[in-house]
Specification:
Elements (H helix, E strand, L loop, with lengths): L32 H6 L8 H15 L2 H10 L5 H23 L5 E3 L1 H12 L6 H20 L2 H7 L3 H22 L3 E3 L7 E3 L5 H18 L5 H16 L27 H4 L5 H25 L12 H18 L4 E3 L3 H6 L5 H14 L11 H15 L11 H17 L2 H19 L7 H15 L5
Antiparallel strand pairs: 1-4, 2-3
Helix pairs in contact: 2-15, 3-4, 3-5, 4-13, 4-15, 6-12, 6-13, 8-12, 8-16, 8-17, 8-18, 9-10, 9-16, 10-16, 17-18, 18-19
Length: 470
């Protein structure tokens, strides 16, 4: 672990690993201002590209300001207050990631953890809303403690190559399935047999999604700048004109914190969350976030080629801290636990390589506090092609698997497949680690295992065997 520590302690490396050449004088000239602060030229990008990438990521994840309030609203939260909280969490987290960690990853209220908070914690266990927010806050505190003490970085360092790449493959498949299901291209099979089936192919959302995906293929092949964003905008305009379900509801709306006495800001009950009945749920949130969010960060960084020569994330420590601290803020403002969004990969696919991408996302969520009606003008079938395209790109991690080391490679593939089959990133990682350890022992390659890998495998298996998994 000490070999990697230098890259996670600030800007000491100045991101030079992205530009190592035999002739140091051949490196791009380091500029000042915006370019110099974000290392835009050093990382082989431009301000325009970063701006487009930020807008692309924002459009791919803006659905969260509708979905998160809806889910928490079903559990009794005031939806107006949750809308504000969702925007604030995304703005704070993305700006922290962009301005401090300087990486192109956007943060927002995690959909999976939102579902757990609403349906398991509040509706399932009958926990009050203030106590639930206290649990989110405590989860953020524990999560941050685990991060700053180096435990998360230790996990990343001990992530075997096969499982690291397998996580990227699995997240790509997962993203593909989520996007396809969201527009009805793939639906739940109501009959006996496989769990999914083709949806109504002739429906407008499906046709537009397939057309949009093919259009992205063509535009990216022609290297059209901002091709993914162009498709999102074009399909959104089409929806506004021809789809009766896409209705212009205005432009400007003052933020609403709910009726008097219903604001969620600062209403968390931390002492209530320390109740022995609630603590297991807090730990479940922490465990899920550790492997889910960490796996996502690793996958997005890998796709953006933001790894150093040792395969570690540049400024990884700051990236991990940014998303854990954001969960603390979420508890304070009345939102769900935060995490890096998989949709960040849409921005990196559009060329985003620096923190300017995430900064643009954060600023746009600040604007969304006052432009809430606009969130309804980007239909799911406008962003689905971008997400499916990103999912397909992430499948290229298959080529990085070393099939000469079959135990490692096949464990990675097992991790990938079960991420999508179970709809859970942590489950895939657990099965991948388990297969790797058992496979190494039975094959006589136990000397290739390190203590860290074995410990992680044991902790994950116990977590699932104990019934604490989300």
């Amino acid at each position: 672990m000490s070999d990697h520590s230098a890259i996670h302690t600030g800007q000491s490396t100045k991101d030079t690993d992205l530009n190592n050449t035999e002739n140091p004088e051949a490196k791009p000239e380091i500029k000042g201002g915006l370019d110099g602060y974000f290392y835009i030229t050093e990382r082989g990008s431009t301000v325009k590209t970063e701006m487009v990438a930020g807008l692309t990521t924002f459009l791919a994840m803006v659905y969260s300001v509708i979905v998160v309030p809806s889910m928490l609203g079903a559990a009794g939260f005031n939806q107006g207050a949750v809308y504000i909280a969702t925007c604030l969490v995304a703005a704070f987290g993305s700006l922290l990631m962009g301005l401090w960690a300087k990486l192109p990853m956007a943060i927002g209220c995690a959909i999976s953890l939102t579902a757990f908070t609403a349906f398991s914690l509040v509706l399932g266990q009958g926990v009050s809303i203030p106590v639930a927010l206290g649990a989110v806050f405590l989860m953020g505190v524990v999560f941050t403690a685990i991060t700053v003490t180096g435990v998360r970085q230790w996990i990343l360092t001990n992530l075997p190559h096969g499982i690291a790449h397998g996580t990227g493959i699995g997240i790509g498949l997962f993203l593909l399935l989520i996007a396809a299901n969201g527009v009805g291209l793939v639906i739940k099979n109501p009959y006996e047999g496989l769990p999914v089936m083709l949806g109504e192919f002739t429906s407008l959302p499906v046709l537009m999604s397939v057309f949009g995906l093919a259009a992205i293929f063509g535009l990216e092949k022609r290297r059209v700048p901002g091709g993914i964003l162009l498709v999102i905008v074009a399909i959104s305009v089409f929806g506004i004109i021809f789809d009766p379900n896409v209705v212009y509801q205005g432009l400007f709306a003052m933020p609403s914190f709910g009726a008097e006495g219903e604001s969620l800001l600062g209403t968390m009950d931390i002492m209530g969350a320390l109740n022995p009945i609630v603590i297991p749920s807090v730990l479940a949130l922490v465990m899920t976030a550790i492997f889910d969010a960490t796996g996502t960060i690793r996958a997005v960084a890998g796709q953006a080629n933001l790894l150093d020569k040792d395969g570690q994330i540049i400024n990884g420590g700051k990236a991990l801290t940014s998303d854990s601290v954001s969960s603390i803020v979420a508890g304070c403002v009345g939102g769900a636990p935060a995490a890096v969004y998989i949709e960040s990969a849409a921005g990196t696919a559009a060329g985003g390589k620096t923190g300017l991408t995430a900064t643009v996302v954060g600023l746009l969520f600040v604007v969304m506090l006052f432009l809430s009606p606009l969130s309804y003008l980007v239909p799911a079938y406008a962003t689905a092609p971008a997400l499916m395209y990103v999912g397909l790109l992430m499948l290229s991690n298959v080529s990085k698997l070393d099939m000469n080391d079959s135990v490692d490679a096949l464990s990675g593939l097992m991790c990938a497949v079960f991420i999508v089959l179970t709809g859970n990133i942590v489950t895939g990682i657990m099965l991948g680690f388990s297969a790797l350890v058992i496979g190494r022992v039975i094959s006589g390659e136990w000397k290739k295992l390190n203590v860290g890998t074995v410990l992680i495998a044991i902790v994950l298996v116990v977590f699932y065997a104990g019934g604490w998994a989300i």
